[in-house]
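4.2 Preliminary Data

To establish feasibility before requesting continued support, the project team ran the inverse folding procedure on a target of 293 residues. The structure was first converted into the token representation described in Section 3, and no sequence information of any kind was made available to the design step. The complete token record follows.
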């Protein structure tokens, strides 16, 4: 197989199904060698089998992204099997939905650990590998592709743990892009809409596959072309962006920006804040609504 990722080595987490499996298959079709990471060994192998049956190259991996030492073995397998590493797609995630007033510490910790810490653990080891390559004088053209969510960008009722983790991932991406460019590493982030194990229960009716042969808006394969392009050499000039992808639409999420504000030129008194607030709010461009509100 040949394509825009010919010869590139890609690690994709949570690639046993849903979006991750679609990404893995799409990368392989474009010539990449893929490490399919998933804690579900059978699911990971099923993705690998589909790739190899189509003529692609892939291996399964079941190391944990939430254990820092174990996550290093994902990078080692990519290097040992395929001779290097070019792209990390942090896709794996879980949901433990509950209204904030009822959320348990365990539900909070589980989601933050899988999403936010999981993004850190694998990316950290990949960056160590790439930095060492750069310091050795080797050309590095590497990619980190993170996964946020509309919940992380706008909030989502009943998902405070998930929204906090995904918002943290968006901010992490900005930092990675600013810090890692010197080593030849770009970092971008996705907020994808697709039918996955996490969405098929909560949004089953909305996301069900059309029966009339119409365009399948929530097919996870719709997101894959953007991810593959971001993992290719063609995307070298793009970093620090948060992309939203749903159906056939790609957009950039425009982040927090400082407004003109109200400047007194001296310290405010508490009694003056009300008038200043009226001025600020009257000129405000309201944020998008929190999902479910």
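Position-by-position output of the design step:
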């Amino acid at each position: 197989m040949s394509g825009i990722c010919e010869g590139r080595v890609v690690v994709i987490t949570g690639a046993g199904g849903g979006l991750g499996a679609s990404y893995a298959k799409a990368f392989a079709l474009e010539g990449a060698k893929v490490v399919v990471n998933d804690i579900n060994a059978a699911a990971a192998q099923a993705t690998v089998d589909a790739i190899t049956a189509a003529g692609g190259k892939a291996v399964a991996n079941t190391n944990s992204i939430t254990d820092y030492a174990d996550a290093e073995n994902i990078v080692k397998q990519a290097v040992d099997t395929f001779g290097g590493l070019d792209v990390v797609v942090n896709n794996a995630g879980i949901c433990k939905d509950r209204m904030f007033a009822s959320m348990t510490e365990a539900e909070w910790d589980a989601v933050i650990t899988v999403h936010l810490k999981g993004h850190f653990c694998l990316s950290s080891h990949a960056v160590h590998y790439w930095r060492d390559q750069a310091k050795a004088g080797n050309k590095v053209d590497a990619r980190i592709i993170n996964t946020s969510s509309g919940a992380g960008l706008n909030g989502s009722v009943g998902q405070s743990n998930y929204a906090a983790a995904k918002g943290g991932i968006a901010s992490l991406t900005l930092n990675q892009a600013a810090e890692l460019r010197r080593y030849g590493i770009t970092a971008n982030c996705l907020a994808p809409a697709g039918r996955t194990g996490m969405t098929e229960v909560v949004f089953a009716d909305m996301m069900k596959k059309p029966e009339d042969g119409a365009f399948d808006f929530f097919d996870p394969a719709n997101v894959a072309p953007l991810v593959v392009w971001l993992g290719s050499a063609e995307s070298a000039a793009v970093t620090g962006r948060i992309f939203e992808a749903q159906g056939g639409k790609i957009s950039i999420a425009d982040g927090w920006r400082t407004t003109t504000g109200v400047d007194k030129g001296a310290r405010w008194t508490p009694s003056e804040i009300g008038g200043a607030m009226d001025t600020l709010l009257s000129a405000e461009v309201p944020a998008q609504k929190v999902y479910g509100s």
